[in-house]
């Protein structure tokens, strides 16, 4: 709280030098400090050493409501409740002996018989060899009497309102940023297919991987602002994450560290957040790099492992069944049994001050538990370390597919006419390029001209690919007009944020940013419904 008694005391002492003492009764207060008293937000009193109120601002009159509106010349103690009188006596005595600001809480009774809980702050001002005292009073009755739960609820409500506003702002930023990421991701995938076998391909893989991580980060920022759960969990294959991570890790270590991968070709899928898996791999790989001190071997090995009812004690919390195991091993310095026992504790580190937060392995274990799995550590001094990550195998599966766009679709495209409607011309051009490469007939338009183009179309549209972020009135008018012209048209919505909407038959949603492969699969799936 801003200390008005301190501020007023300084100004009062300064004004005394120019305006004279208290003996010039109307000089110092009315001409020099009355204005300062009135602009002070707290109730402010100037009191003599006997406790008599010498000057007061309007806020003090409003707070104390003196009888007959007479406050000057009355004693401050006259407004104290009996249970505060003794405390005020000691406070007053302590105040006169100190040079700093004194603070306490007192219970007062106003001239209107209202009982107030006030925060009282006071400071002594030297005057002509004597003293004056400046008091500020702040009413805290409502705050003190409020139910703590009510205060908490009110604070949560304010926080919720702030986050709601942030969420609305984030939605607009996410839409624009995801359009940019869609262009980067889409064209990266196209060029990757064209550079099959080229040594330059690895650079584009890093761009594609980075844009994917950026998309996950933006999505999580939006979900956080809205106070929602992550919702980023999906079925994935650990082999794919290791392959994608390998290129990124190579750029972070010296050539003296050799990477090895032994990946099970028929590996079961898991259900997890891809961004969290990348974080686990990064934390383990960075620890391994530091442990190997510039040279050594870092290996990744995937396999399937069955956890039965006779599982060891440290795995007792796991549900018996099939698990996917990823072993991350290094040839570094290893750990002593004492360090290994503490390795997963938050803030424990063997790297020394300034070289580690001690949160890397704690984060790994936390993520593994969140996935319903566990992490095991095998290590010994000078024999390296091996972390075994156990993920429950997913009940559902994803189709294995080739990285070649030519394999994505080998279907009959003749007679399929796709209408691309998007306000961003670069996104439109990307979609048109991918669809035409697959053999589709494609027409594109900005939203405001879409209905006119639809009416002039030489052949009926099979599908419209449209941005969900269009203003609702425009979107309703556009979709209604298209369905009037082409009753069997299907709708693929492009969305910057996950929506809980239940789509009607003949419609689907594709999350931005998307790759050319994901776009082709979404179109194919919708056409097949």
Automatic annotation (TrEMBL):
SUPFAM superfamilies: ATPase domain of HSP90 chaperone/DNA topoisomerase II/histidine kinase, CheY-like, Homodimeric domain of signal transducing histidine kinase, PYP-like sensor domain (PAS domain). Pfam families: HATPase_c, HisKA, PAS_9. It catalyses: ATP + protein L-histidine = ADP + protein N-phospho-L-histidine. It is an enzyme of class 2 (transferase). Keywords: Phosphoprotein. One of its GO terms (biological process) is regulation of DNA-templated transcription. GO terms for molecular function: ATP binding; phosphorelay sensor kinase activity. Its EC number is 2.7.13.3. PANTHER family: SENSOR HISTIDINE KINASE, TWO-COMPONENT SENSOR PPRA. This is histidine kinase. It comes from Bradymonas sediminis. The lineage of its organism: Bacteria, Deltaproteobacteria, Bradymonadales, Bradymonadaceae, Bradymonas.
């Amino acid at each position: 709280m801003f200390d008005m008694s301190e501020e007023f005391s300084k100004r009062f002492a300064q004004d005394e030098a120019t305006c004279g003492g208290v003996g010039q009764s109307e000089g110092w207060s009315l001409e020099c400090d009355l204005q300062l008293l009135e602009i002070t937000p707290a109730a402010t009193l100037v009191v003599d050493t006997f406790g008599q109120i010498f000057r007061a601002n309007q806020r003090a009159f409003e707070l104390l409501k003196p009888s007959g509106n007479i406050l000057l010349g009355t004693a401050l103690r006259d407004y104290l409740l009996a249970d505060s009188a003794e405390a005020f006596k000691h406070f007053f005595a302590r105040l006169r002996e100190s040079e700093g600001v004194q603070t306490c809480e007192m219970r007062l009774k106003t001239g209107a018989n209202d009982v107030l809980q006030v925060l009282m702050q006071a400071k002594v001002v030297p005057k002509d060899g004597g003293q004056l005292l400046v008091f500020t009073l702040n009413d805290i009755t409502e705050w003190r009497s409020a139910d703590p739960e009510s205060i908490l609820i009110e604070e949560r409500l304010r926080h919720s309102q702030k986050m709601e506003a942030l969420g609305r702002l984030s939605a607009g930023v996410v839409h624009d940023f995801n359009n940019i990421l869609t262009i980067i991701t889409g064209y990266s995938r196209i060029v990757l297919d064209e550079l099959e076998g080229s040594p330059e391909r690895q650079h584009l893989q890093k761009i594609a991987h980075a844009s994917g991580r950026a998309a996950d980060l933006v999505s999580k920022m939006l979900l956080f602002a809205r106070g929602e759960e992550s919702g980023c969990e999906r079925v994935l294959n650990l082999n794919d994450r290791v392959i994608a991570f390998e290129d990124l890790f190579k750029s972070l270590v010296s050539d003296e560290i050799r990477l090895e991968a032994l990946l099970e070709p028929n590996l079961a899928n898991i259900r997890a957040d891809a961004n969290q898996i990348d974080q686990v791999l990064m934390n383990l790989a960075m620890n391994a790099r530091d442990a190997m001190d510039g040279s050594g071997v870092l290996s990744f090995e995937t396999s399937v492992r069955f956890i039965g009812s006779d599982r060891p004690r440290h795995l007792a919390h796991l549900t018996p069944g099939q698990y996917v195991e990823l072993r991350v091993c290094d040839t570094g310095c290893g750990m002593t049994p004492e360090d290994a026992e503490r390795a997963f504790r938050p803030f424990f580190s063997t790297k020394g001050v300034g070289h580690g937060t001690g949160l890397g392995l704690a984060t790994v274990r936390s993520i593994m538990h969140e996935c319903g799995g566990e992490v095991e550590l095998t290590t010994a001094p000078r024999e390296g370390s091996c972390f075994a990550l156990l993920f429950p195998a997913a009940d559902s599966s994803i189709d294995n597919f080739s990285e070649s766009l030519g394999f994505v679709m080998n279907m009959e495209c003749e007679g399929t006419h796709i209408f691309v409607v998007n306000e961003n011309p670069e996104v439109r051009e990307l979609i048109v390029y991918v669809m035409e490469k697959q053999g589709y007939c494609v027409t594109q338009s900005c939203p405001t001209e879409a209905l006119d183009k639809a009416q002039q179309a030489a052949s009926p549209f099979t599908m419209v690919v449209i941005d969900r972020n269009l203003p609702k009135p425009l979107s309703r008018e556009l979709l209604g007009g298209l369905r009037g012209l082409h009753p069997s048209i299907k709708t693929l919505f492009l969305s910057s944020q996950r929506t809980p909407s239940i789509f009607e038959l003949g419609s689907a949603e594709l999350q931005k940013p998307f790759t050319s492969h994901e776009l082709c699969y979404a179109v194919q799936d919708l056409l097949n419904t």
